[in-house]
Amino acid sequence: MDSLVVALGLSTCSCGVGAYLLLGMCDHSSPTHDGTLSPECKADSSPLDHQPGPFPGIVDILGAGGGLLEYRASLLAGKGFAVMALAYYNYEDLPKSLENLHLEYFEEAVNYLLNHPQVKGPGVGLLGISKGGELCLSMASLLKGITAAVIINGSVVRVGGNLHYKGSGPFPGIIDIFGIGGGLLEYRASLLAGHGFATLALAYYDFNDLPKKFDVIHLEYFEEAVCYMLQHAQIKGPCIGLLGISLGADICLSMASFLKNISATVSINGSGFSGDRVIHYKDSNIPPLGHDLRRVKVAFSGLLDIVDVRNDIVGGCENPCMIPIEKAQGPILFIVGQDDHNRRSEFYAQIASERLQAHGKEKPQIISYPGAGHFIEPPYFPMCPASLQTFLDKPVMWGGEPRAHSKAQVDAWKQIITFFTKHLGPSPKL
Ligand SMILES: *[C@@H]1O[C@H](CO)[C@@H](O)[C@H](O)[C@H]1NC(C)=O
Ligand SMILES: *[C@@H]1O[C@H](CO)[C@@H](O)[C@H](O)[C@H]1NC(C)=O
Ligand SMILES: *[C@@H]1O[C@H](CO)[C@@H](O)[C@H](O)[C@H]1NC(C)=O
């Protein structure tokens, strides 16, 4: 016999029948080992120094075949780890299907190990293959007390079935809208979802069967998205939040002004104006402010600077091209880059503030970042100093000084999460 493995399973494990705890035992490379069980090689001796435990703990999870497989745990136990082989379905009285797994079950297993006198804390490790690897990734992401995880051929997405955890919905809802680049960008929505918000990344043109171009912004399309969110079982009503950048920000401001059940809006470099397109909702049309390309400047680099192309705002905050933001039922957070070369977003935010106050509303929160450009993205995204502007079909500069812009991105993200948490209610703790 090469090694001794003791199964402390079933009867002593509180976390369900589907688990065996294996404490690993003797060092077969020990000089005293002669092929028979040496006196010091006892069930509770650790392999290296022949001292009793505690041993480092590992939870071992196999794949979608189900049942309880102990061989890998046994082999690991032979190397001096306290290993729990954990079944999670299709075993004894465990569920017969993978449709609805609950992370609490796995949490209990981790806690069982952490509290076991033979397991050395402060954390435990995880080993998973295939579906088990996927589960280990979720455990490592959401549970406390996991210090290392090995994933063999796991997937980073859930391949099938639902995994529930105590934070499971309903969640506060947010619709996330990008700018003139079109298409569907999901990264910001994914990041928000990681903070417990049910987030809809909403494309509105140049994606699948959506139009390739548009001259009128029909708010009815966006209203449908709001209704979809509000009737969704995983979304906590009665209101949702909006997050938009650039043209997406102006769409969000229009939605907040005309549609119901919007309780918080974040505008990143929005203008508060209908820029180059009519904004239409039912009987209302907001005419575009328009621009004059003769005001395009060419920078030394050859890039275009379009910061001054928009027409003057005659009449200030009562200009008819302005979005009637005073109708918005919830608060608006304006985030602006002072070095925005796409538009004078700080100036626009000031006008928006004037309009709100002129209509007896509270002064909105404006967070203005020196040295930040137009595209204020989530933290640690590279700054985009210039790119092809789809409207002009020419390379234009967006502004921003890398260091200041990067710092602004880190801070702006925190402010956005705080704002939504305050006005949409806290998300279930993830
Ligand atoms: C890898 O995992 C996937 C599921 O995540 C499974 O379908 C596939 O059979 C696995 N391959 C191997 C070699 O284990
Ligand atoms: C919209 O908000 C109102 C007032 O808070 C609420 O009564 C209504 O149920 C909400 N509508 C939906 C579809 O959630
Ligand atoms: C701000 O948004 C406007 C509206 O789409 C856009 O044209 C401009 O390029 C943006 N500026 C920045 C700095 O993002």
List the helices and strands and how they pair.
Layout: E1 6-7, E2 19-23, E3 55-61, H1 71-77, E4 82-86, E5 100-102, H2 103-115, E6 119-129, H3 131-142, E7 146-152, E8 162-164, E9 171-177, H4 187-193, E10 198-201, E11 216-218, H5 219-231, E12 235-245, H6 247-258, E13 262-268, E14 278-281, E15 284-286, E16 297-298, E17 304-305, E18 332-337, H7 345-358, E19 365-369, E20 386-389, E21 394-397, H8 402-424
Parallel strand pairs: 3-4, 3-6, 5-8, 6-7, 9-10, 9-12, 11-14, 12-13, 13-18, 18-19
Antiparallel strand pairs: 1-2, 2-4, 14-15, 16-17, 20-21
Bound molecules: 2-acetamido-2-deoxy-beta-D-glucopyranose (NAG) (3 copies).
One 2-acetamido-2-deoxy-beta-D-glucopyranose is lined by residues 230, 237-239, 260-261.
Would you kindly provide a written description of the structure presented here, covering whatever features stand out?
The protein has 430 residues and is an alpha/beta fold. The protein folds into two domains: 6-164, Alpha/Beta hydrolase fold, catalytic domain (Rossmann fold); 171-424, Rossmann fold. It is 23% helix and 24% strand. The protein has eight helices and 21 strands. The protein has helices at residues 71-77, 103-115, 131-142, 187-193, 219-231, 247-258, 345-358, 402-424; strands at 6-7, 19-23, 55-61, 82-86, 100-102, 119-129, 146-152, 162-164, 171-177, 198-201, 216-218, 235-245, 262-268, 278-281, 284-286, 297-298, 304-305, 332-337, 365-369, 386-389, 394-397. The strands form six sheets. Strands 1-2-4-3-6-7 form a six-stranded mixed β-sheet, sandwiched between helices. A six-stranded parallel β-sheet has the order 10-9-12-13-18-19, with helices on both faces. Strand 12, helix 6 and strand 13 form a beta-alpha-beta unit. The two termini are 46 Å apart. Mean pLDDT is 83; it is low at 1-17 and 24-49. It binds 2-acetamido-2-deoxy-beta-D-glucopyranose (3 copies). The site of one 2-acetamido-2-deoxy-beta-D-glucopyranose (NAG) has 4 residues, from loops.
